[in-house]
Amino acid sequence: MGSDVIFGQYIKGDSVIHQLDARMKIIIAILYIVIIFLAHSVSAFILLIVATAVFIIMTKIPLRLLLKAMKPLMIIIIVTAIINMFWFTGKTLLVKFWIINIYLEGIINSLLIITRIILLIMATSVFLTYTTTPLKLTDAIEYLLGPLKVLHVPVHEFSMMMTIALRFIPTLIDETHKIINAQTARGANFTSGGLISRAKSLIPILIPLFISAFRRADELATAMECRCYTGGDGRTKLNVPKTSCADWIFLLVIIVLGVAVVLLNTFIPIYSM
Amino acid sequence: MASIELKNVSYTYNKSLPSKITAVDDVSLKIDSGITGLIGHTGSGKSTLVQMLNGLIKPDQGEILLNGNNIWADPKKIRDIRFKVGLVMQYPEYQLFADTVEDDIAFGPKNMGIEGEKLNETVESAAFFAGISKEILKKSPFELSGGQKRRVALAGIIAMSPEILVLDEPAAGLDPAGRRDILGGIKVFSKIKNTTVIIVSHSMEDMAMYCDDIIVMAKSKVIAYGTCSEVFSQHELLTSTGLDVPQITRIAAALKKNGIDIGDDIYTVDYAVDKLIEKYKK
User: Fold this and answer.
1) How many CB atoms lie within 10 A of CB A83?
2) What is the CATH number of the domain that holds B78?
3) What residues does B36 pair with on adjacent strands?
4) Global pTM?
5) Residue A173, pLDDT above cutoff 80
6) ipTM
7) How many domains does one find in chain B?
8) Using the beta-carbon criterion (under 8 Å), do A3 and B15 form an inter-chain contact?
9) Is residue B68 part of a domain?
10) Closest Cα of chain B to A252: distance in Å?
11) Residue B98, helix vs strand vs coil
């Protein structure tokens, strides 16, 4: 079971955010990312932290799960912060040691960068991956890219490919686990030996996995043809997405947030980056 | 014969997620001879249970004893346990990978360190028990039919000469002849090599035909364990868990209701025929 993979995984729920229209969620997420990059002063960041916290609470997803998702990204965050701290030149020199100069502004700057990265991850997780099923997400992308059809971009085919790819990730993970188990049961050893012998030990996993992936692709293609699938032209949808009142309210809230961030940047510029 | 014993074993999937599922809940049992069938509904915890027997899954609680020794006593030696408890997983034909059938069967024994002439002997004897003819040994496993592939996968485990052979749905998806070949081969192997065998299955008919003892699992627990006649005589218990007794047992029950009593321990067709003849001779 792929129970270790939390980042980017849909978590079932029935919160307001879960029920928002996926198209609106994509727009909201993009706007929110822009707003996070607009924020420059501590005051604006505090507002965004509070807003993100409110959104997280609204999703009703346990905080423990969100934190677990952050774990693999911790190294990137820490490295970014350290690099920023050492390379930033400011006015208040705190530590001077050999060629290392650490300024107060540098520390604040890296703290703000950490906050920004965490906010970015949280925002996309809360609005997109955690609360939207991959199927709805690709549907929404297809809709939003719709205008490109005029330029003969195969938008539907593209989104169908994405849907199928996403749909089969858990299946293939499952399959991989099964094959690993089966070969382990025959005494295969994946964790010891040199680089070459480890690479070789992957053969008994990769060959069955590829064969099964091709078999599945073949079966799926046949199944789709049996149901007369010919591509995007003239295809209608079973569930036509509808925007509700809540969607527009959320959009409004985000726009207000954006305006507030710009205002805070200009009027209360505490330790601006 | 080798014995395997479970003591208060439990296992839960997705422990930290809201979707956590307890697959095996406080199960204790001992299997030490012959062919034992493990039956249960989809999702009753059978597959998780058998994967614990050879250490693919480590139980959250409880211990598993192989010939009286805890298999997790030294986690570094768990690989040796996997050679002693051979596990044939569901649809094992999807795990074949080697260039020839021979090489695929040899994968397990090679991992055990068997080489040269001994390896050839092992492979040939395993192929014999699994019903694989010599000309097939040189073929690519991907040229074979579904039933043949299944037998190759089975041979791959038998080649490790396990003390206990565990099979998860060995006959699933095969036609009646294929089922007979595979299950019959397993029975012969068990007799000749004196190996304890555990078979997971849905088919009551197969269980009645090939097993000595039956374990019934429902909702992550063992609800019945006994000889075929002991278990199949408990119609109500089995039907209440969504399982069924063999068709012939149901026929016997219907006959009894209509005044033709040939006993409650009918679970194979042959035995029912014998009993009927006996009754009408009198």
Assistant:
1) 12
2) 3.40.50.300
3) B198, B213
4) 0.73
5) yes
6) 0.83
7) 2
8) yes
9) yes
10) 32
11) coil
